[in-house]
């Protein structure tokens, strides 16, 4: 059975992740102590922080029901990758992948972690499924939450590359070459796409290496890979 016929729930806007069904603090009475107010504010701040990660992060139960997702997770489920949110649950787009995903979710109840590679339908997607049984339940009596971490699509966020280029005074052409290298393109592909000679791209790469102190393309990519993420501003 192909799950592509399943009715999908509309994905919320990035800001809507703060209104996800996860409740990190219990409902408070009309008057609460300053400590309770601080805890509530801290929980909302934590959710806001999670939206700035360049990894998709999702809390689900063993059936895949979504209790929280940051905006990178919603983005991954709303594109062409092998997963989506349908009827409020994290699902694979293909039955074979769905079976693997459900086995990984069930395994967390026994304390097992899993790496799930979904590639039968749509763009390949890697998921780490981790038990977090000590996490607070969304509501009293509900099953424990399971953490799902989405693999990244790119080595580095485009905005991070832009800031890195600015810090090292790269030219616009050099910045474009660096972006292409971070996407995994070879110099010959970059030259072909830009309509320039390969020697031109090689000269630009040499200039980038000189400005950044990288001794090779591999070292340059390692510098970019370990950069902290800088994501576009959240929508209000």
Give the secondary structure arrangement, pairings included.
Elements: H1 34-50, E1 57-60, E2 66-69, H2 71-78, E3 83-86, E4 89-92, H3 95-107, E5 114-118, E6 125-131, E7 146-150, H4 158-167, H5 172-182, H6 187-194, H7 198-212, H8 217-225
Antiparallel strand pairs: 1-2, 1-7, 3-4, 5-6, 6-7
Helix pairs in contact: 4-5, 5-7, 6-7
| Count of discrete alpha- or pi-helical segments spanning 4 or more residues | 8
Q: Count the strands?
A: 7
**CATH homologous superfamily identity of the largest domain:** PAS domain
* Stretches with pLDDT under 50, minimum 5 residues: 1-31
* Overall pLDDT confidence: 79
The sequence of SSEs as H and E is HEEHEEHEEEHHHHH
Instruction: Give the overall shape.
Output: elongated
Through-space gap between termini: 40 Å
* Domains (count): 2
Rg computed from alpha carbons, rounded to a whole number of angstroms:
21 Å
CATH architecture of the largest domain: 2-Layer Sandwich
Q: Roughly what fraction of the amino acids lie in strands? A: 5-15%
Category from helices, strands and their pairing: alpha+beta
Classified by CATH, the class of the largest domain is Alpha Beta
Strand order of the largest sheet: 2-1-7-6-5
Largest sheet: 5 strands, antiparallel
Written overview of the protein:
By secondary structure, this protein is of the alpha+beta class. The protein folds into two domains: 3-150, Beta-Lactamase; 158-225, Arc Repressor Mutant, subunit A (Orthogonal Bundle), CATH 1.10.10. The chain is built from eight helices and seven strands, in the order αββαββαβββααααα. The chain has helices at residues 34-50, 71-78, 95-107, 158-167, 172-182, 187-194, 198-212, 217-225; strands spanning 57-60, 66-69, 83-86, 89-92, 114-118, 125-131, 146-150. It has a five-stranded antiparallel sheet with strand order 2-1-7-6-5, with helices on one face. A two-stranded antiparallel ribbon has the order 3-4. A hairpin with a 2-residue loop joins strand 3 and strand 4 (89-92). Helix 4 (158-167) crosses helix 5 and helix 6 crosses helix 7 (198-212). The longest helix has 17 residues, at 34-50. The protein starts with 33 loop residues before the first helix and ends in an 11-residue tail after the last helix. The model is unreliable at 1-31 (pLDDT under 50).
């Amino acid at each position: 059975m192909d799950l592509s016929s399943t009715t999908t729930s509309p994905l919320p806007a990035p800001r809507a992740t703060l209104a996800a069904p996860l409740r990190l603090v219990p409902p408070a009475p009309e008057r609460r102590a300053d400590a309770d107010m601080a805890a509530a504010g801290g929980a909302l701040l934590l959710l806001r922080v999670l939206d700035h990660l360049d990894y998709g992060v999702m809390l689900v139960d063993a059936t895949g029901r979504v209790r929280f997702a940051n905006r990178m997770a919603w983005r991954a489920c709303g594109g062409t990758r092998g997963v989506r949110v349908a009827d409020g649950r994290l699902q694979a787009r293909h039955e074979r992948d769905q079976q693997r995903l459900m086995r990984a979710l069930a395994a967390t109840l026994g304390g097992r972690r899993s790496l799930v590679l979904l590639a039968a339908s749509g763009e390949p997607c890697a998921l780490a499924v981790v038990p977090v049984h000590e996490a607070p339940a969304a509501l009293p009596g509900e099953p424990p939450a399971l953490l799902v971490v989405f693999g990244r699509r790119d080595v580095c966020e485009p905005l991070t590359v832009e800031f890195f280029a600015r810090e090292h005074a790269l030219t616009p052409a050099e910045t474009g070459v660096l972006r292409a290298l971070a996407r995994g393109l070879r110099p010959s592909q970059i030259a072909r796409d830009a309509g320039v000679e390969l020697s031109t791209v090689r000269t630009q790469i040499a200039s980038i290496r000189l400005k950044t102190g990288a001794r090779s393309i591999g070292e340059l990519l390692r510098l970019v890979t370990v950069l902290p993420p800088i994501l576009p501003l959240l929508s209000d």
